[in-house]
Amino acid sequence: MTFKPFRIPTILLILSVTLLSGCEGEPSNNLTAADNEEYNLTITNNSPLFLKSVVVTVDQKDDIHINSQIDSNIKFGEVAKFRIKNGNHSLKITLNPKKNYSVSKEVSEKFEQGKVINYQVEIDRNEVTINKQTDNETSEE
Predict the structure, then answer these.
(1) Which residues fall within 8 angstroms of residue 137, CB to CB, at 6 or more apart?
(2) pLDDT number for residue 12
(3) What does the pLDDT look like over 58-95, one tens digit per residue?
(4) Residues with Cβ < 8 Å from 110, sequence gap 6 or more?
(5) Which residues share a beta bridge with 63?
(6) How many CA atoms does the CB half-sphere of 106 hold within 13 Å?
(7) Which is it for strands 41-45 and 87-98: parallel, antiparallel or unpaired?
(8) DSSP letters along 65-118, please?
(9) In the 8-state DSSP scheme, what is residue 50?
């Protein structure tokens, strides 16, 4: 079998187009509004602690159904994100920065479409605190 000179460039062109068509480019790290709609509860780690896990437990008030969500390995400045069903819920936020040590806070929140509730973890007077963040400031509940 002999190859004619014009077939080799054609084969190379087809091969390169086929290989490049599978490339999608680099993913973007920018969060869009659509990304934010996936989450309606965020917990920002503004402490120097490395949080091994952040657990949010939602009590459905029927004493049977309890839903827990976990985010892990949250460093300083990073955000744990959770999706909670719309409505009034009692939550327990539990931080686990070290082995055999945890910090918890129980809160009640009303989750609504398009609204994101923000909490942040801080150290205040040598104690780990979980505070609700409201319009550029935090409030202790």
Answers:
(1) none
(2) 52
(3) 876 665 556 788 999 999 999 999 999 888 888 999 99
(4) 87, 88, 89
(5) none
(6) 2
(7) unpaired
(8) -EEEEEEEEE-TT-EEEE---SEEEEEEEEEEEETTEEEEEEEEEEE-TT--EE
(9) -
